[in-house]
Specification:
Layout: E1 4-7, E2 10-13, E3 18-24, E4 34-39, E5 46-52, E6 55-58, E7 66-71, E8 76-81, E9 90-96, E10 113-114, E11 118-123
Parallel strand pairs: 2-11
Antiparallel strand pairs: 1-3, 3-8, 4-5, 4-9, 5-6, 7-8, 9-10, 9-11
């Protein structure tokens, strides 16, 4: 497993922007699948965006508003969130699976390493 630490969460008004960061330990020198998930109170954890090398996938609910990127030189995964909505309020988690290759589905069971989460609250 790889160690993951999220940061950048906070409170913002609807329409605003936030950038989340996830720093990860250099578990292996090769690139492995990573993703962002979120979980609102009383709801299941849902996938937001996944990335593997140059391939990216987004959940329909965030496509066109969120952008995921990765800087291997800084061991950091990012999630740029624009045009935030009240329904984006959730705990956001960074996930990885260094034992796999390719772009993984946005299902929590596909990932074996998780960060502690960072809270994003969007108010109207």
């Amino acid at each position: 497993q790889v160690q993951l630490v999220e940061s950048g969460g906070g409170s913002v008004q609807a329409g605003g922007s936030l950038t989340l960061s996830c720093t990860y330990s250099a578990y292996t020198y090769r690139t492995y699948p990573m993703a962002w998930f979120r979980q609102a109170p009383g709801k299941e954890r849902e996938g937001v965006a996944s990335i593997y090398v140059g391939t990216i996938a987004y959940a329909d609910s965030v496509a066109g508003r969120f952008t995921v990127s990765r800087d291997n030189a800084k061991n950091t995964l990012y999630l740029q969130m624009n045009s935030l909505k009240v329904e984006d309020t959730a705990m956001y988690y960074c996930a990885a699976n260094p034992a796999r290759w390719g772009l993984l589905p946005l299902r929590p069971t596909e990932y074996n390493s998780w960060g502690q989460g960072t809270q994003v609250t969007v108010s109207s």
